[in-house]
Task: structure prediction
Amino acid sequence: MRAILIAWTLPGAIKTKSSAMAKMLYGQETSCGGGRYVYWRKGFLDDMPYVKLIRGAFIVRKEDSRKIVRFLEENEVVVSVREVVLTARDEIMLDTDRTNDDQ
Result:
């Protein structure tokens, strides 16, 4: 099976801007009340399967890639896109019946 590898960066950006983009994309576990209440702040990728390789690179299904690239480019992110052949494990991770909570 083939899928799309998306790598992104914010060249010249300060670390806080890059961190904010990562939170917008991947989501973030957040707590309040001194850690008593923990919740998930949703990210753009939370509604679609993906395999996160490193902070700035992940693999998605071909049918989701255009929407993701458009989102990144609208946020002034430099994007590189490549078609890749999946490993058996990656195929399982991108199964449409799974959610990212299962990863």
Remarks:
- The mean pLDDT is 88.
